[in-house]
Amino acid sequence: MAVFKPDNVEDLYEMGEVLGSGHFGQVRKVRERSTGTLWAGKFLKIRKSQCSLLGLERSNVEREVMILEAVQHPNIVTLKDVFESRAEVVLILELVCGGELFDFIAEKENLLESEAIEFLKQILEALRFMHGKNVVHFDLKPENIMLSDKSSPQPIIKLIDFGLARRICQGEEFRSTSGTPQYIAPEVINCEPLNASADMWSIGVITYILLSGLSPFQDETDEETLANILAMKFEFNDRYFSTTSSMAKDFIQKLLVKDPSERMTAEDSLHHPWIKPLTRSQKVKRNRSSINMKSFKKFNARRKWKMSYNMVRMCNRLVRLRLLCKSSDHDPVQRDCESDIEDTESKPASLLRRRLSSSS
Ligand code: ATP
To answer: What region holds the Protein kinase domain (predicted)?
Structure first.
């Protein structure tokens, strides 16, 4: 595994603008002092004591690093280096400059299904590769699907954020309830053993949204959303799917399948006629069908608004947290533990772990 270098990252990299924030820290643009090359620095706060709920356990960061090293693929963000200080670990990642795929699409006037498929294919290629190495992402959602350079005629997809990813070896049983409510598979909610098919469910949800601008299971509250997923409550309402091909609906229907063993794999998906048409008429249909751009733009605007709202909420929580920590400065043991008050106050379910950074 990559060596966690003890060097001070600022001696080697000049800090730049903040690119994004997650639950455990920030991602900033950084410039390598020796070469002038730009990278993305992911700064992850490490948990200081056993009783603290804030920050990540070092073992989680080690896992993210190990997985990033194992999944080197043109459609997956690359890890360059890792630095470690007492309080944080910094991952130096390839800088992904083109923003989120959904934002790129929302800027367009219209988009044919065949054009959307070009992006989907790249996502599926990345998944086929990862799943072939027994790595499952477990947090596929629009925020984690980026483009390397949006000005290029064929922008390249880059999957990011392997913070929840796992390597599940043959015979190993893995259960987890982490993820983002809108995109998680029924078996995650039911705390059943998981495998790569959980990612394929998320691809079904993402494709549904991409074509219609509607989120198949989303409801007023996360609890209702989760209940809709378990009840498999989704339909192709003509109001939103009037321009969608029947092949596209078939593709989604083969992914939004409750039984994970019946769901299409990444390999199957790449051979579905909507992705890889077998006849001329199938090809023509994809070029005649388009995504519901008006509805998609609305979905994306709402998603961005929610992300900003959640970010402000998270900042407010951090400010209150700092105040709490200051007031308990006299007791060092209490200081370590009290910084967690905000976390225990919020919903404990790990299912909602990523809510603040998601658009659930
Ligand atoms: P979360 O808690 O939301 O899962 P996280 O702490 O795991 O977040 P990431 O999702 O990896 O962090 O990154 C947070 C944000 O930073 C991303 O949504 C994206 O906007 C930006 N970002 C992450 N990696 C890169 C990169 N390599 N290049 C450019 N921007 C990036």
So the answer is: 13-275
Among residues 320, 301, 60, 343, which one has the least CA distance to residue 42?
Answer: 60
Please say whether the beta carbons of 242 and 220 come within 8 A: no
Sign of CA dihedral 81, 49, 27, 124: positive
CB 75 within 8 Å of CB 123 = yes
> What is the spatial distance between Cα 152 and Cα 234, in angstroms, rounded to a whole number?
36
- CB 256, CB 232: distance < 8 Å: yes
Q: Is the CB of 77 under 6 A from ligand 1?
A: yes
b/e code 10-44 from CB counts within 10 Å (16+ = b): eeebeeeeebbbbbbbebbbbeeeeeeeebbbbbb
Q: pLDDT digit string (tens) for 23-61?
A: 888 999 999 999 999 999 999 999 877 777 778 899 999
Signed CA dihedral, 270, 274, 280, 283: sign only: negative
pTM of this structure: 0.89
CB 205 within 8 A of CB 216: yes
* % of the chain at pLDDT higher than 70: 88
Q: Which residues are catalytic?
A: 139
- Cβ neighbors of 253 (< 8 A, separation 6 or more) are none
Core vs surface per residue 221-242: b (16+ CB within 10 A) or e: ebeebbebbeeeebebeeebbe
Annotated binding-site residue numbers: 42
Contact 68, 18 (CB under 8 A): no
